[in-house]
Amino acid sequence: MTATPGLGTPELASADLLRSVFRKHAAGVAVVTAQGEHPVGFTATSLNSVAAEPPLISFGVGTSSSSWPVLSEAGHVGVHILGEHQEELAATFARSGADRFAPPTAWRTGPEGVPVLDGVLAWLVCRVVARVPAGDHRILIAQAVVGDPAGPGRPLLYHQGRFNALRD
Fold it and tell me: How far apart are CA 160 and CA 154, in angstroms?
């Protein structure tokens, strides 16, 4: 491989290269929840809008995640868009071994029995329609059933390995 003028030397694709490239990509921060024997949830930056008709979303989840056993069977999931004031909530749901639903996390049982977090910018309860194998992850595709976009504030972002806020 040769260097491109003005750019660095290209690298062969690897997990480290992918991580390095995506650290440059700012992503919105969401928390995905589901109800099993106990509620589960995790912080996701892989949330995408897939289609408007029908209203579909997707996100990735690692099969080694503590949430995967519940998500592998869940009929419905909660998807929560976090605000810039919710960095600690994002960190709690990203932390391995944390009791994510203990105080100070404020939540309630929502439609379809899905845990719904309080104080978020927006939330959806979605019916899972597909689980697509993708390496050591699964891509879940889910159809929005009900939600609320009316939370106040601005979105929390993830960039360069840190939570950030939008700047004007």
Answer: 19
